[in-house]
Amino acid sequence: MSIHVHKPGLLSTLQDAGRYGYQKYGVIVSGAMDPFAHRTANWLVGNEEDEATMEMTVIGPVLYFAEAALIAICGSNLQPRIDGVSVPLWRPVYVKAGTTLQFASSREGCRSYLAVAGGFNVPRQMASYSTYLRAGIGGFEGRALKERDQLQVKPASALSRSIQQRLSSRMDGDAPFGTISWRVSYELLPAYAANPEIRVNAGAQYDLFEPASLEALLTAEFVVQPQSDRMGYRLTGKPLMMIERKEMLSEPVTFGTMQVPPDGNPIVLMADRQTTGGYPKVAQVISADLPLLAQAQIGSRIRFKLINLYEAQEAHLKMELNVNFLKKSIHMYFD
């Protein structure tokens, strides 16, 4: 089956969990900005979590389904509608053949993820489906989607077929889609908020910053700037200054590394980050809070909270327990 792109939206790309194992060659990881929403959307349609999803940013696309399909939409609410009927988020949805899925602008958050049963049929490059726009690799022809693109879909798994059969059998005759009464519990979701509090660990050069700057980092608000993108979020607030400016060697960086350039305004590195960086690293966003940061919009006000490594590991384990519970629940319900 195929999905026809009638309008591409502001920025729609195919992403997976990332391109790992090639950073030593200077190849960046990329992948979904909100890993939780990406993984959950795949599981809701019976896919493995490493299948590609469509990441849609701020304004979503218009997609035509020539054939029936099983989809799930997770993350930000981009006001999805199928043939004019509002589509619920965080649950599997059976889409009738000959219908149009249309998104609008974001009501809350920044990015939404569309999974389709079977996964998008695009080639893996360096063991990943993820699109890296600057290099033109991965995803659909290494680029963002355009009008008139046709996305091919792979055959669905046995679980996907079971979900689709269950939903199609419960549909009203005239409805453009069918779904279920339950959704992913709010208790299992990250603490999404318009102005989130983000937990961080101390960075490698944390102790080299002025005490007043460290206090500001943990008490003041920082605003997401328009120059922010998938590579990094640029923040403004009280400048963070070092006790003594030093020349530093480039070191490895990762998703959530907070670097501070000479002007004192921090940059939090995101999915399309470079492999190394030479600016001092004052903090590291914990993995459990990366989805919160990924959904922050331009102009969002962010506060940071310092926690220790044990607390960060505990938060990560809690998140993994939640997603594994969700995965098992889906299998039990539809198997």
Detailed description of the structure:
The protein has five helices and 21 strands. The chain is an alpha+beta fold. The chain folds into two domains: 183 residues, no CATH class; 123 residues, Cyclophilin-like (Cyclophilin, Beta Barrel), CATH 2.40.100. The strands form four sheets. It has a seven-stranded mixed beta barrel. The chain has a six-stranded antiparallel β-sheet with strand order 7-6-9-4-1-11, with no helix packed on it. β14 and β15 form a beta hairpin. The longest helix is centred in the C-terminal third of the chain and has 26 residues. The mean pLDDT is 94.
The 3D shape can be described as elongated
SSE succession? EEHEEEEEEEEEHEEHEEEEEEEHEH
The number of helical runs is 5
Main sheet strand line-up: 13-20-17-18-15-14-21
**Poorly predicted regions:** none
Structural class, by secondary structure, is alpha+beta
What descriptive keywords fit this protein?
21 strands, elongated, 335 residues, 5 helices, seven-stranded mixed barrel, 2 domains, alpha+beta, six-stranded antiparallel β-sheet, Cyclophilin
